[in-house]
Specification:
By secondary structure, the protein is an alpha+beta fold. It has one domain. Helices cover 24% and strands 25% of the residues. It contains two helices and seven strands; from the N terminus they run H-H-E-E-E-E-E-E-E. The longest helix has 53 residues.
């Protein structure tokens, strides 16, 4: 009578199989984690770009109106116009900064006649600034007595989200050049730099982040804004 013995796996065979299985599972998990991280980094980089472009569009729209008046120009309105005019310096076009820790020229104050009532009131005053403590761009919210670059935070709400885009620097540079027929061509160059950390939701220390770090995404946008709202006599 033939007796058949059913042999199981030896201990060595089981260990080899276990190791091979772990190697395969580890490889699959590594590919999954890498894909997930790459996708997360791409999403954060896209959100950074969108946040920067949105705030640049917002500031461009307002700055382009600097000096706009709401009535037909006549020589009798010279005194009124002088309170709104666009210039590189003056009480109604001011470039300064939030405080000594902020980048130079990272705050701008300007006016335009938004309601066309020929009167300079607080609703005609506008401004944008970089707050280095929060890493955000803030906009003046028409609170009387706070139209200054170091005005209270309550009067200057954030228009960017530091968790999406930590604003590293912001600069406004105004120039005035002669154009055709003596008409002055006035421009403002807006330069914005921001960063986001792709592996962390904590935006702290991004103001000094190393842009060569693979985990840090840095972007820069420069926009030239042509302003031509002053009268021609």
């Amino acid at each position: 009578m033939l007796i058949t013995r059913n042999r199981g796996f030896t201990l060595i065979e089981l260990l080899v199989s276990l190791v091979l299985g772990l190697v395969v599972v580890g490889g699959v998990m590594g590919v999954f984690v890498s894909s997930y991280q790459a996708n997360s980094q791409n999403i954060k980089a896209i959100r950074l770009n969108e946040e920067m472009r949105a705030v640049v569009a917002l500031m461009t729209r307002d700055i382009r109106r600097a000096g706009t008046r709401g009535f037909d120009w006549t020589t009798t309105n010279v005194s009124w116009y002088s309170t709104y005019q666009f210039g590189t310096t003056g009480t109604n076009w001011v470039v300064s900064r939030y405080d000594n820790t902020a980048p130079v020229d990272s705050c701008v104050l300007f006016t335009y006649d938004i309601n066309g009532d020929d009167t300079l009131d607080d609703g005609d005053r506008f401004g944008y600034r970089l707050n280095p403590g929060t890493g955000a761009i803030e906009a003046y919210n028409h609170v009387a007595g706070q139209w200054v670059c170091n005005g209270s935070n309550a009067a200057w709400p954030q228009v960017t989200d530091p968790e999406i885009a930590w604003i590293r620097s912001l600069a406004f540079t105004a120039t005035t050049e002669p154009g055709v027929a003596g008409i002055l061509v006035r421009t403002v160059v807006l330069n914005l730099r921001a960063a986001t950390h792709t592996r962390s939701t904590d935006p702290s220390n991004l103001s000094a982040a190393d842009c060569s770090n693979i985990d840090v995404v840095c972007r820069q946008i420069e926009e030239t804004i042509r302003v031509r709202n002053d009268p021609v006599l």
